[in-house]
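Structure tokens please, single chain.
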Amino acid sequence: MDFDYALILSGDQLYRMDYRPLVQQHVETNAEVTIATIPVVRNEARSLGILQINPERRIVRFVEKPKETALLDELRLDAASTARLGLAEGEERFLASMGIYVFNRDLLSQLLENDYTDFGKHIIPRAIETHRVYSYVFQGYWEDIGTIRSFFEANLDLASELPRFNFFDMTAPIYTRPRFLPASKINGASLDHTIVSDGSILNHCKISQSIVGQRFLVDAGSHITRTVIMGADYYESNDSIAQNARSGRPRIGIGKNTRVDTAIVDKNARIGDNCVITPHGKAESYDHPDHLYYIRDGIVIIPKNGVIPSGTTI
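Here you go.
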């Protein structure tokens, strides 16, 4: 297939962008590479690739995850750049790479002819030194969800009254893959700031500030707060439920009178009755010896297909 430009996207980010203005600027500036960037504050800049631009938005410097205060001082946008970008006067901002690139096709082929192993750390700095690399400044919603904490917080924000990422924007709708599942059934459950996906069953439980994925059961008396539940890939048959019960394994879902707080429950997890799952009072990072659960960034993670027996306290 013949093409002139290659658009490269990152897979661990949540954002909404029309790529046409990005490509248009790439063509109009006669750039060889254009990097989508976003203004961020100092704390965010420490964990991202930070760029410096000249008045024409050509990139003149790139630093990966700058930590030193003096280096950050050098990299922040000056007053003239802040004004040109329409940012509020007096606000300290840095231009961070969004991991979204437009390359001229021929140049991309040239830059990949090497033994480099990291695109952002190796290919991009090399290109800035030798080619015309420009910044396209984006100022909409963008969140890097490459860590457990950022993934967790971005998901929970979707359940807020005014989420920063709006799935209900009909000017740019987002459609999920059709699953043809039955509607979710709410049997006396109390829900507050919660998103419930298709095909779930919620029985006389309380759920707040949470996401409930598809095909998931939360049984009576359970209380779920600040939790991302990824759902289930299939419905269990009655025979499967009975067979697992004989083996002391709960059914897929969350059983009766269980409390889950500040957690990510991965797909097809089985959490029994009368359990308590919370990271409070525990280490920020921990691996259970039998891989029953993990804690990362102060968040409990129940792994995919994980089994938490009834009566367990985490």
